[in-house]
Amino acid sequence: MAREFQRGHKARISDLTAGTDLYVGVQIAAPGLTFDISCFGLDADERLSDDRYFIFFNQPKSPEESLQQLGPQAGDTESFRVTLDRIPQHIQKLSFTAAIDGAGQMSQIGPGYIRIVAGGQEVARYSFTGSEFSTERAVMLGDFYMKDVWRFAAVGQGFDGGLEALLRNFGGEVAEEAEAAPQTDAAPGFAPPTASEAPPAFAPPAAPEPAPAPPPGFGVPSQQAAPAPAPAQQPPTQPEPVAQQPDVPQPAPQPPAAPHLDQQAQMHAAPTIAAPLAPPAATPPPPAPYGAQPQPAPYGAPGAHPGQPVPPPAQPGPYGQQPPAYGQPAPQGSGAYAVPQQGPGAGLEASLQKYREAATGQRWTPQSEKLIRADLGIDGQPVLARQGSMVLYQGKVDFSYKGAGFRGRIVGNATGQEMQLMRCSGQGQVFFAENSAHVHPIELQGDAICVNAESVLAFDESLQHEVRRIEGHGIPGGALFTMQFQGTGTVVVKTAGTPVVLPVTPTTFADANAIVAWSAGSQVIISSQVRLRRNAYPGHSGETVNLQFRGAPGNFIVVQPYEV
């Protein structure tokens, strides 16, 4: 009996069948629509690094024929033959996709499925309907992936864009229009199910039909040369047209300094605000380094010439004692320079003075750029904070677990990113920090903001907060887990370094790992329109997916200098 999969379910192939020569059938249809059903053979980085393993209508099989497109049969819109034990080691994932050829949306499709058949018996099936999608023009149906052993995952993830966008998303390129590759006369009759009678057991073809010779030197994947071009016919002297440049550019003369300064002036004239969300407390410059005198003396002893004036830059400050004024020479004389006048406690107290707690009487008070204090006695409202972020508290404070709610748990379980919160209540002060990250309090006065859940440190319980999920193939974890805050109160975000606040324009894109927050009025769109090649080239970003932001003037995003 076939095992029924739901979206997100995974299983070992060995738990479904002992066979490795499998039939994969896809059934998808909609009135007036045609579909391109393909298989992408991806490497360990989930990129199409070898375009010979992009199996579609113009390239129906891989070089060693471990992947073959068989065409429609047995009630399936498209079918494939997958021989797992013949797939080369550099192919770590097989992604089966369906894209609409022309206009249309995936919400128009009827009931469909992707199924696995072994030895004529169906062993797994994942069913889907158009109600699970909206305006997407493609869908990622299921994946075979290597994780110690071959496994199957039911994906069911919609994708904005057609077959070309899918190809670019996986790191490939769209070649010029070329004649379709010749199809084989008949698909191998190994073990596909038929509607009338049980299929025979698999047997290798006795006499395979003549076929074009595969590219030479395929036998050992680790020693093969640069991958051959995709379906387009190229002259034998140019096996890799993608990597070649049309003309060798002549070295350009060194640009003069003035145009370069003009470009910098234009860049700095753009309406970009680069500043921390909360200015860090001003810190005085460090005292002059010890050891600048020609004849250094031990700490606590007078200089070599007590009566002779010493230039201010070379005058070291006394160890353990704050100098009278930064940048000014210390008082001259044998007693005022080196010997503490009020006992050993005065120097220690002075040296720690600049690190003392900043008591301002406000609800939230930054103690440094990486530590913030919440005063629970200001308005009596509790504080919600990330579990494990409390580093110190004073007074009578109660800590309790605060879940994300039923909906939050569902989102968290689906993404693996459920945020665990603790509730801090009572009378006292609580200090928060995490992993030496920079902290920034953001005060809301009836407005709203969306924050990446990984960047939330703490917030007032009086704020309304809602868990949201942005899905997209290529985003770490499969989705971006966000929280929207609204109302009156303060939310504290954490960043890796000093963030940048940018206005939202029609061409604003951000990496999913770098985005911290954005205005609630901004629209977020998963973008995969980045051209990727197998070899790096100038202007190549290396990102497989980005977040595009759109909105009216006045909207903004906050980005941190951080990348995984």
Structure report:
About 25% of the residues have low confidence. The protein is mostly beta strands and about 575 residues long. The protein is elongated. The strands form 4 sheets. Strands 13, 14, 15, 16, 17, 18, 19, 20, 21, 22, 24 and 27 form a 12-stranded antiparallel beta sheet that branches. The chain is built from 6 helices and 27 strands. Strand 6 and strand 7 form a beta hairpin.
What are the main properties of this structure?
single chain; 564 residues; mainly beta; twelve-stranded antiparallel beta sheet; six-stranded mixed beta sheet; 27 strands; TerD domain-containing protein; TerD; Trp_RNA-bd_attenuator-like_dom; Stress/Tellurium_Resist
Strand coverage percent: 25-35%
* Largest sheet features: 12 strands, antiparallel
Helix content: under 10%
Distance between the termini: 43 Å
Low-confidence stretches: 177-189, 196-249, 255-261, 272-276, 290-294, 297-308, 314-321, 332-340, 404-417, 529-540
Q: What is the typical, i.e. mean, pLDDT?
A: 73
Apparent shape: elongated
SS element count, helices: 6
Main structural class: mainly beta
Rg (C-alpha, Å): 32 Å
Quantity of strands, as a count: 27
Brief summary:
By secondary structure, this protein is mostly beta strands. The protein has six helices and 27 strands. The protein has helices at 13-16, 163-169, 257-268, 334-338, 344-352, 405-415, and strands at residues 3-5, 10-12, 21-27, 35-42, 54-55, 67-69, 78-83, 93-100, 112-118, 121-128, 138-147, 149-159, 364-368, 371-375, 383-386, 390-402, 421-432, 438-452, 456-460, 464-471, 479-495, 500-503, 508-510, 515-519, 523-527, 546-550, 556-559.
